[in-house]
């Protein structure tokens, strides 16, 4: 319920304090959904830019076209960040990092400079997350998992990365494990976010 009151100038205002709390909560949710739907890409770019501005290592950010892994009528792209330190040892394996559920590649910004001191680093937005393409995945968990693994493999092939370290956090660690099990013939080291990379 809303109560209308008149001001000295004759204008009518509403007393929002008398609005039913449940109705106010629903309106707030609706407003949030509208803002998220129409401005999330722009806000994501802005937030990522702020975080990556903290990096001291030179980096490149670009999309990798992986073809139509999920959508047979379209083409998917994976947003990728690569860091190369001229002083890093070339003989060291490159590092590929996968973020957690509901996150993106910028979550790694506190770690990237340290890792890049020794090796080339690739961070990516998993297909369906961050700035990568967001296709409609299969509702079947097994097929959805296969689509994600295939997307990662297509990404690897496009960048021509052979032997590498694959590191994941949370959901990214799960995906990394699935990828390693699906491609046992690949030359890769599988690790998780608490492992000491200086050992490799």
Automatic annotation (TrEMBL):
GO terms for cellular component: lipid droplet; mitochondrion; peroxisome. It comes from the Eukaryota. InterPro entries: AB_hydrolase_1, AB_hydrolase_fold. Pfam families: Abhydrolase_1 (PF00561). One of its GO terms (biological process) is lipid homeostasis. One of its GO terms (molecular function) is phospholipase activity. Residues 94-186 form the AB hydrolase-1 domain. Gene3D superfamilies: alpha/beta hydrolase. PANTHER family: PUMMELIG, ISOFORM A (PTHR42886:SF29), RE40534P-RELATED (PTHR42886). Belongs to the peptidase S33 family. ABHD4/ABHD5 subfamily. This is AB hydrolase-1 domain-containing protein. It comes from Drosophila willistoni. The lineage of its organism: Eukaryota, Metazoa, Ecdysozoa, Arthropoda, Hexapoda.
